[in-house]
Design brief:
Shape: elongated
Helix content: over 70%
Structural class: mainly alpha
Number of domains: 2
Number of helices: 9
Number of strands: 0
């Protein structure tokens, strides 16, 4: 039998964990769960050493139940956001693991925060827009826009982390303008077409006005990269424009 002191401490901690449940669930099941937990603790012998494994298992299982109960109470958008947030966290493990094994991969903590935000925003945009994928040109426009936006954000983040050139942060304004335009357009094809054309124009303007300070060969490669991104955003705009024509028929 476990000692009374160890059982009391475990029950106090378990009681605090149960407070994470939604109030209706806690009021209905909390007292019974506490009593059951206490009875099971008393059946385990060896004091705290004997209880530690059992308590850790119960706490993990209870925490999973807390997440599940809160997820069930969320709206559809809330559940989508939760799934995307967890998926973005899983995707973040790849660069985090690489930073431990790849020589020269020395991102600062802020870089990993920006990568997580990039994963999350890309996933949320796709999840929300996917509901409106009715014609092939709309689907293709979404795919091209997200691929180009993700690549631009990722490459710019890596460049800033590697060189410390904060002037490159101007390129994020293209992504911010795209997100704002998509919200104002309410994901309708005509508004998205104008947004993507605007993103292409803004990126072209930034690539001309923002000095890179790079050697001639690197500057040439950057110019080619800018041209590719501008072409992708413009192509996405054309696809959304075609989708708007299909909707009007």
């Amino acid at each position: 039998m476990a000692t009374d002191g160890a059982v009391r401490r475990c029950r106090a901690w378990y009681s605090m964990l149960l407070r994470l449940y939604p109030r209706p669930f806690r009021e209905r099941f909390g007292e019974g769960m506490e009593q059951t937990f206490q009875d099971l603790c008393r059946e385990h012998g060896g004091g705290w050493q004997g209880l530690s494994g059992f308590v850790a298992w119960v706490f993990c299982e209870t925490l999973a139940g807390v997440v599940k109960e809160h997820a069930m109470k969320l709206s559809q958008i809330g559940r989508t956001a939760l799934r995307v947030a967890l998926g973005a966290l899983a995707a973040l493990m790849a660069p985090l693991a690489a930073s431990r094994v790849v020589e020269g991969w020395n991102w600062p903590p802020g870089a990993f925060v920006r990568v997580y935000v990039l994963f999350f925003v890309t996933g949320m945009v796709f999840a929300l827009v996917a509901r409106r994928m009715e014609v092939w040109s709309y689907k293709a426009g979404v795919g091209v826009a997200l691929a180009a936006g993700f690549a631009l954000g990722w490459s710019n983040m890596v460049h800033v982390a590697g060189t410390g050139n904060l002037a490159n942060l101007w390129y994020y304004s293209v992504l911010v303008a795209g997100a704002a335009g998509a919200l104002l357009a309410r994901l309708r094809a005509p508004g998205l077409a104008r947004t993507l054309f605007g993103m292409a124009a803004l990126l072209a303007l930034i690539s001309v006005l923002v000095p890179s300070g790079a050697p001639p060969e690197a500057a040439r490669r950057m110019a080619i990269g800018h041209g590719v991104y501008v072409g992708l955003f413009a192509a996405s705009g054309l696809l959304f424009w075609r989708a708007s024509l299909a909707d009007s028929k």
